[in-house]
Amino acid sequence: MKRVSFAEFGGPDVLQLVDAEEPHAGPGRIRIAVRAAGVNPVDWRIREGQFQKVRPIELPAGVGQDASGVVDEVGEGVEGVEVGEHVFGEGSSTYAEFAVLSAWARMPEGLTFAEAAGYPSVVETALRIIRQAGVRSGQTLLASGASGGVGSAVLQIARDRGITVIGTAGAANQDYLRSLGALATTYGEGWVERVRRLGHVDAALDLAGSGVIRELVELTGDPQKVISIADLAAPELGARYSGVAGSVPEALAEAAGLISRGKLHIPVEKSYTLAEAAAAHIDSHAGHTRGRRVVVV
């Protein structure tokens, strides 16, 4: 089978489309014929070697953790899913023709494979950091860098829970944020005052790692009310870094419910082929995403 792999840490040029042995579903796992894989910032952070001190991997290594596809192997002990079903979930080396998933759910009706691949990690992350922020109905959450996948999920999940969200993004994405129910403003000079004019901030999320932790602490008045998923140095300023996933199966089940109820939709901004994985990483690293990017197999 074909899969995207890298044999050394570095820039996007280390990614290669190679022939590899097919993986197989071990106990508690399923294998899918991949139809699409989500492109996440963690993919290129791992490729660059950023997590080697905390989560070391052996090289050569595959790329990707989110995918959608058709079940074609069911491992020992797995119940409730059959060969031929359409699922989306999380696993390893998902930029490939076949991948093994450790967590999955049936795809909601009406969802395309490309759309489904964009949900797993971002919804788990959004649910986790909203919970960690401790915000509840009637309070206000600030999401810095809100137009990407996690931000799109945060805005919609928070709105469904009665939480007001202020979102910052580039000028081109202001209408997009408003369409998801956010109070929107641009980043850049004067952004802190623009946020203050929109309302009191009870907690804040750094979704882009753009060096805004000090300002988020200033807006909330308490560094423990600031959570980053993108700035490893956030704890140096008293804020919290959230990088360890919670229950992915529970998150997928909640995502499926929200999608089916029409409460969650994350658009696919751009699709790439396996051979274009390097371009996908370049674009993801550049930011300014509206929704999700996916690799279509």
UniProtKB/TrEMBL annotation:
- What CDD domains does the entry give? MDR_like_2
Taking the record's annotation, the residue ranges forming a coiled coil are none
A Gene Ontology molecular function term for this protein is: oxidoreductase activity
Major location, coarse class?
Answer: cytoplasm
- Keywords per UniProt: Cytoplasm, NADP, Oxidoreductase, RNA-binding
* Recorded superkingdom: Bacteria
Give residue ranges for domain Enoyl reductase (ER).
10-295
Q: How does it assemble?
A: Homotetramer.
- Designated name of the protein: NADP-dependent oxidoreductase
Task: State the organism of origin.
Answer: Streptomyces celluloflavus
